[in-house]
């Protein structure tokens, strides 16, 4: 099996090294990842500008390419130009921090997996919750188990799979399929760091995670992860609020008579 590995934390991030090593027993691994930090780049694509690509190797001898672009650039470049043959599976991560609920809109880890899914390739995004330290290698057995199972499923090209790992010193309690269950936000504020004659320069210096409206049920991602379970969620590019369609049509038709 040919496996493409990417991320949004960058080629040298420890999470992607653990992920690539974890997947080696399943097949032939190639890494195509951003050369620099691309957190929160979502599904953005570089158009009309040069994208630098540099061939590199991990210390384990795993071949790879560093790309001066976004996670989606990495996946699309790999599939379209860099790899001799299309990958059978794409896995992104392991992200430093979770990608839950509304995180999916901005996450580069999710964006890379969605890019793979749009290319018709089974794709999985992996993320590890925040904590005092990040034991990425601990996630390896579960990642192999999930990847092996997902490749056998007939619907593995109908969505991408987002997998969130709890950051705990204890054993994972299990793996659950979960839907979105709350609002997971990063409370941060833009700060002016310098000014010149006609401009101000802002940066987000840092912040902290805020959880709101958490549904306390193991069938929902935030709660399941906080309880020590690996939360596995199908994600899709379709952002239509389907349950609102009938009401919206009815109200508009009444207004527009």
Characteristics of this structure?
257 residues, 27% strand, 9-stranded mixed sheet, 26% helix, Stationary-phase Survival Protein Sure Homolog, Chain: A
What do you see in this structure?
The model has no long low-confidence stretch (mean pLDDT 92). The protein has helices spanning 14-23, 71-82, 103-106, 108-118, 140-152, 221-226, 245-255, and strands spanning 2-6, 28-34, 53-57, 63-67, 89-96, 123-128, 160-165, 175-177, 183-187, 191-195, 200-203, 208-212, 230-235. The chain has one domain (2-182, 214-255): Stationary-phase Survival Protein Sure Homolog, Chain: A, CATH 3.40.1210. The termini are far apart. Helix 1 (14-23) packs across helix 5. The chain has 257 residues and is α/β, with parallel strands linked by helices. Strands 3-4-2-1-5-6-7-13-8 form a 9-stranded mixed sheet, with helices on both faces. It has a two-stranded antiparallel ribbon with strand order 9-12. Strands 10-11 form a two-stranded antiparallel ribbon. 26% of the residues lie in helices and 27% in strands. The chain contains 7 helices and 13 strands.
